[in-house]
Design a protein that fits this description.
alpha+beta; 354 residues; 31% helix; 8-stranded antiparallel β-sheet; 6-stranded antiparallel β-sheet; single chain
């Protein structure tokens, strides 16, 4: 009974909450825009394309938003493809704005750049990222914040568009989205300033006839599950009822999971400690109650099988991460449980019980 109880608790702890949570995206109601809660996402069922060769392509992105919190990190927006799920993303790291390109997009390009203190307060911010074949520039509220000659976005604004979360992990954004536009060209400083002024004053950018736009989302529906594209391309955005990820990782390699952070180290210790009871009680069961050959090896194999089951099922839960780091730490935790059972201290305690 103790073995079954420990096994059930271990499985339950690894699979809570057992199903994807409700997608917390709500319309602002009294104004244009949507609000992302604790778990929220919007994505495009269709895919975006950029004209021209990748090495000559120009593109721009405008986002009008308001952060809901200023701690931790979150993904504001991302473009994802099946070949390169983490192709491009805009992220908030505490008060900083970070532009990250996927590993496979350009091995010779700078993988990330950023601007400090963009999100210093919880207030609306208008961001513009514009790129030519020679450089990328980032504007904040119509003012140039930084240029990066070594970064060329090219066709990074292609594939499926994801708002409010990462396409591959639960790195969720909390706050409001009020506007989004994608352009198949580089914007000039005067155009950036004009769009900022007209969009924040009128609720939409004032575009001249010679200004092509790939997509324009005004978030003015105020109801429903669809954010309509205001240009003829009609790549609408969809608000699902349940939170989900486009390309959730399946048994991600441990070297890709590594993060130099306290949370990463904390998770390692939790995963090791979590399987020690399973190793202890099952080694005891197969050693004393129902003796079998190589009880220790069988117990460690069981710990690995339980961990593999959890990781496989976690790949279907967007709030959990499926990776090989947990396989290693869980199996090691089971081994420590076996060692603990066979220690002199445990033997003395068990002798008193029996």
């Amino acid at each position: 009974m103790i073995c079954w109880a420990v096994l059930c608790v271990t499985l339950a702890a690894g699979l809570v909450p057992f199903r994807p949570p409700r997608n917390v995206v709500t319309w602002l109601g009294n104004q244009d825009g949507v609000r992302f809660g604790h778990y929220g996402t919007i994505f495009s069922p269709g895919t975006f394309q950029m004209p021209g060769a990748p090495e000559k392509a120009s593109s721009s992105l405008e986002i009008w938003l308001k952060p809901g919190r200023l701690t931790g990190s979150s993904t504001l927006l991302a473009f994802s493809t099946p070949e390169n799920p983490s192709q491009f993303s805009l992220q908030r790291y505490f008060s900083d704005l970070v532009l990250i390109r996927g590993e496979e997009s350009d091995l010779h390009a700078t993988p990330w750049v950023g601007i400090h203190n963009v999100f210093r307060r919880i207030e609306p911010v208008f961001l513009t990222v514009t790129s030519s074949p020679h450089q990328t520039a980032i504007y904040v509220n119509g003012v140039l914040a930084g240029t990066f000659p070594q970064v060329r976005l090219g066709h990074d604004f292609t594939g499926q568009l994801v708002l409010g979360t990462s396409p591959v992990m639960g790195q969720v954004w909390s706050g409001d989205f009020r506007g989004l536009a994608i352009y198949p060209r580089e914007l000039t400083p005067l155009q950036v300033l004009s769009h900022y002024q007209t969009w924040t004053a009128q609720g939409r950018p004032e575009l001249s006839p010679d200004e092509p736009v790939s997509a324009l989302y005004l978030f003015n529906e105020r109801a429903g599950s669809v954010v309509h594209d205001a240009v003829p391309t009609r790549i609408d955005l969809y608000i699902p009822s349940r939170y989900s990820l486009l390309h959730q990782a399946f048994l991600e390699p441990f070297w890709k999971e590594y993060k130099p952070s306290r949370r990463y180290v904390k998770d390692i210790f939790i995963n090791i400690a979590g399987l020690i009871p399973l190793g202890f009680v099952f080694c005891g069961f197969w050693s004393r109650v129902h003796p079998i050959k190589r009880a220790a090896l069988a117990t460690v194999a069981l710990g690995f099988a339980v961990s593999l089951t959890i990781e496989v099922l976690q790949s279907q839960l967007p709030t959990r991460d499926s990776g090989t780091t947990d396989l290693i730490t869980n199996t090691f935790g089971t081994f420590l449980g076996v060692v603990l059972y066979r220690s002199k201290i445990a033997a003395a305690l068990l002798a008193k019980i029996y």
